[in-house]
Amino acid sequence: MSHAPLKPGTAFAFRKTMTVAEQAMFTGISGNLGGLYVDAVRARKAGASNMVAFELAVGGLATTCLSQLGGPTRRIGSIALNFAAPVIVGESVEARAEIVSVDGDDATCRVTCTLSPSGATVVDGTATLVPFAKA
């Protein structure tokens, strides 16, 4: 299976609003019933303006960018994310991934998620794209 060449500096960005409906779906998928995530009253008591979006749902937006960069023959081999600040359900997030280096068929990417329109960073980290199957 041949792999399209990856080039440092190539980037892809994706923006979406974290919705109540998706929060409910992620609750079902993850089984996480933490008060900050499922109860707006508890979240407000903790100082948030609404429920807090699941960190992995926010970080998961970056996988859309990574998939676009890697194409149909690559997958995420590793990912490490730092969650700098919470995202509130209803806020819009722009995820971005950029290839920073290439080693053979593997690519190391920088991943960021920022609030839109403020640009405040809420997630940053790295990921490695690897061939789905080694040739």
From TrEMBL:
Coiled coil ranges: none
Q: Which PANTHER family match?
A: HYDROXYACYL-THIOESTER DEHYDRATASE TYPE 2, MITOCHONDRIAL (PTHR43437:SF3), HYDROXYACYL-THIOESTER DEHYDRATASE TYPE 2, MITOCHONDRIAL-RELATED (PTHR43437)
Name of the protein: Acyl dehydratase
Q: Which Pfam families does the entry mention?
A: MaoC_dehydratas
Which Gene3D superfamilies does the record associate with it?
Hotdog Thioesterase
At the top level, the lineage of the source is Bacteria
Q: Which organism is it from?
A: Bradyrhizobium zhanjiangense
Q: What is the lineage of its organism?
A: Bacteria, Pseudomonadati, Pseudomonadota, Alphaproteobacteria, Hyphomicrobiales
Sorted alphabetically, which InterPro entries does this protein's record hold? HotDog_dom_sf, MaoC-like_dom, UPF0336/Enoyl-CoA_hydratase
Q: Which residues form the MaoC-like domain?
A: 8-112
